[in-house]
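Annual report, structural modelling task.

Input specification for the beta-D-ribofuranose complex:
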Amino acid sequence: MKRVIIDTDTAGDDTIALFMALHHFQVEGVLITGGNVQFDQEVENALYTIEVAGKGGEVPVFKGHETPILQFGSEKHVTVEDVHGSDGMGGANFPKAKQQPKSEHAVDFLIRKVHENPGELSIMAIAPLTNIAMALKKDPTIATEIKEIFIMGGTNNYLGNITPAAEYNFYVDPEAARIVLHSGIPLTMVGWEMCTQYSVMNDQDHQDIEQLQTKGSDFFIKINEVVKEFNKAVHRLDGTTHPDTLLMAIAADEAVMTKSTNYYVDIETKGELTRGYSLVDINGRLEQPANVRVCEEVDRDRFKTALLNCLKEIQ
Ligand code: BDR
Ligand code: CA
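The model returned the following structure:
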């Protein structure tokens, strides 16, 4: 069983990704980073999700960086309550979890845990990469001791979601993404276009999920209320999107990813219109060595089955 640390800005699809991870992996810790919604709400969402999954008190949660590396003064990174609801949970306003976050900082936990288990731990990165980049800055020696990182972020020459050029996680903290992309750690990237092409759950899929009638399926339906409408109105997608859950399903079962290629990937940090744009050099024009395994095709049915199996188990 993979031993993993998850870095998440828990809201919306992050919660179902947590379900998926708790179902398949030995989760050694959950780190929270600033992203989707207000930071304390993200912490609360992670704790509550773990409780719903039946693992309350068993998986430690650590608060990390609330803001991107270069955020200054009263500047605020863009949050996306319009996508995930004011509470990041589709407006469900769940009760408070019993579990509390740990006092150790997420970055310190990550560094400590990696050194205690060299070569053993995989990181599931489903948020802006601030915490992971800051850990690499604080202690660069962890780079050779992290087994791999699966990154939900960026796009492979495709339309972004937060701007036309950029995907949200890379857009919020491009400097962090750049540090991680050039870390030398084995990386797998699942971009936004994999999510829109293969993970959209339409009305029929939602009915199949609702019919499971488990605590997990009920939770899934509730937290997806807002994103369904948002996707229709903004992305012109007929259903809910599950980028983080797709990443987790791939990490759990590589057969979900039916095609991938190693490419050189970098990120625009200065562009006037393109800050956060991920450059995937598919034609090798930059003559740089490949640094990322990029997911290019997914078995949608296999993903849906994995999702349903996971929600079925949460009774
Ligand atoms: C990413 O941004 C967040 O809103 C989602 O949770 C996902 O990690 C998609 O661009
Ligand atoms: Ca996320």
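The chain has a mean pLDDT of 97.
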